[in-house]
TrEMBL record:
NCBIfam families: amt. One of its GO terms (molecular function) is ammonium channel activity. This is Ammonium transporter. It comes from Lolium multiflorum. Involved in ammonium transport. It comes from the Eukaryota. The chain crosses the membrane at residues 26-48, 60-79, 136-155, 162-188, 200-218, 230-250, 262-286, 293-311, 317-337, 358-383, 403-428. Keywords: Ammonia transport, Membrane, Transmembrane, Transmembrane helix, Transport. It is a multi-pass membrane protein. Belongs to the ammonia transporter channel (TC 1.A.11.2) family. PANTHER family: AMMONIUM TRANSPORTER MEP2. Residues 26-450 form the Ammonium transporter AmtB-like domain. Its main location: membrane. One of its GO terms (cellular component) is plasma membrane.
């Protein structure tokens, strides 16, 4: 505290360390908050609106619970499993990220692989110009949204108690492996596999894990599979809009600085998403004669997912090409291949996360191996010699590395997710009982999304009105929990 003769004692701002760049720190925290808002409220609203009315509360709560549960696990052990000291070539050592001395120190992250003359490897390190607390925050919201995306495959039938156990287990034994392997200095990182902002770590893993978990949990009720209309299309679009705008932080924050690369990443993200949405919509019009709003949202998502692994590594023209591919290939797998595949028909992937995230994520990683521009790769990682196959040289090898990296993420998620589901299933049933499946939110949570009658049933004054047709005003009924004096 300092004393001023005119106003008395006043707080004194602490002296900032020399390494702190306030602009970079502000952008990193803003980026993290934008990504967090993609989940809460973005995907909470989207999930609660895109499902049948009787599952609105349960679907929104699955997302909200995952966001909260990941936070505690992340700072207690999972951050250092993803970005800490190496335990195995694909896994870091578990330890808390809670100490003040750790959190206020300058952030340190692996940057790239460097070769010595004797052929040995050394990881180059970067020191972003902000404290470690900002990095823990930034990476936590990425981990949280991965679990929430995975939940999209399981809506409308997973036992909420099973989900509560599944979230920390999957974060620990699946997400941290992909994050450390590709971002935290693991073997795929050293090998040179490129994943700019999570096309593999987040989207491919959530799509594959969601599909795998959906297999073990089992399908929704027959009635729900046959008809599952969104309960509020306009709110669904609100959630989708938050998801799109929040992607500026998703991809713009991954250079760990408010620099040229972050600006390019944000621009490419919007270019690819817009192109993909338009291509998906045009295909719907051409083949189904009507532009589907849900289809447009799916096209938007596949474009955002596809550009993620290469957002700051490709030029604008490549972002358009990637958008054209992400608007057509996942459309084809969802609208054509899915209907002809016995496996895809058997597994009830509620929101088609396999198509929108696994297919689009793999597509994005592979096309990054084709279109990554050498100068932009150097701008992102100064000592990198990476380039896409389109630019010749070692680009063909880079493409093969991208495919191999995807295969590792796919295999690990199938095995780890299966084991986790089996273990959870030994503790509590993975699937809701039939009585809860028939009723929905009211049976699971004792709450309903809307105090309205609807969902296709006929009007019944004894259920939907305050007055009985036969009893008149003397027999009027108050809503549940309200006492009336007549």
């Amino acid at each position: 505290m300092a004393y001023n003769m005119s106003i008395g004692y006043m707080p004194v701002a602490p002296v900032a360390p020399d390494w702190l760049n306030k602009g970079d720190n502000a952008w990193q925290m803003i980026s993290a908050t934008l990504v967090g808002m993609q989940s809460v409220p973005g995907l909470v609203i989207l999930y609660g609106s895109i499902v049948k009315k009787k599952w609105a509360v349960n679907s929104a709560f699955m997302a909200l619970y995952a966001f909260a549960a990941v936070w505690l696990c992340w700072v207690t052990w999972a951050y250092n499993m993803s970005f800490g000291h190496k335990l195995l070539p694909f896994w870091g050592k578990a330890r808390p990220a809670l100490g003040q001395s750790f959190l206020i120190a300058q952030a340190v992250l692996p940057q790239t692989t460097q070769f010595h003359k004797d052929g040995s490897l050394e990881t180059g390190w970067i020191n972003p110009a902000y404290p470690m607390a900002s990095m823990v925050y930034f990476q936590c919201v990425f981990a949280a949204i991965t679990l929430i995306l995975l939940a999209g495959s399981l809506l409308g039938r997973m036992n909420i108690r099973a989900w509560m156990i599944f979230v920390p287990l999957w974060l620990t034994f699946s997400y941290t492996v992909g994050a450390f392997s590709l971002w935290g200095g693991g073997f795929l990182f050293h090998w040179g596999v490129m994943d700019y902002s999570g096309g593999y770590v987040i989207h491919l893993s959530s799509g594959i894990a969601g599909f795998t978990a959906a297999y073990w949990v089992g399908p929704r009720s027959t009635k729900d599979r046959e008809r599952f209309p969104p309960n509020n299309v306009l709110l669904m679009l609100t959630g989708a809009g938050l998801l799109w705008m929040g992607w500026a932080g998703f991809n713009g924050g991954d250079p760990y600085s408010a620099n040229i690369d972050s600006s390019l990443a944000v621009l490419n993200t919007n270019i690819c998403a817009a192109t993909s949405l338009l291509v998906w919509t045009c295909l719907d019009v051409i083949f189904f004669k009507k532009p589907s709003v849900i289809g447009a949202v799916q096209g938007m998502i596949t474009g955002l997912v596809c550009i993620t692994p290469g957002a700051g590594l490709v030029q604008g023209w490549a972002a358009i090409v990637m958008g054209m591919l992400s608007g057509s290939i996942p459309w084809f797998t969802m609208m054509v291949v899915h209907k002809r595949s016995k496996l895809l028909q058997h597994v009830d992937d509620t929101l088609g996360v396999f198509h929108t995230h696994a297919v689009a994520g793999f597509l994005g990683g592979a096309t990054t191996g084709l279109f990554a521009e050498p100068v932009l790769c150097t701008l992102f990682v100064p000592v990198s010699n990476s380039r896409g196959a389109f630019y010749g040289g070692t680009g063909g090898i880079q493409f093969l590395k991208q495919v191999a990296g995807a295969l590792f993420i796919i295999c690990w998620n199938v095995v780890a997710t299966s084991l986790i589901c089996i273990i959870v299933g030994l503790i509590v049933p993975l699937r809701m009982p039939e009585e809860e499946l028939a009723i929905g939110d009211d049976a699971v949570h004792g709450e309903e999304a809307y105090a309205l009658w609807g969902d296709g049933e006929k009007y019944d004054s004894s259920k939907h009105g305050w007055y009985s047709d036969t009893e008149g005003t003397q027999g009027r009924k108050a809503p549940s929990g309200v006492t009336q004096n007549v």
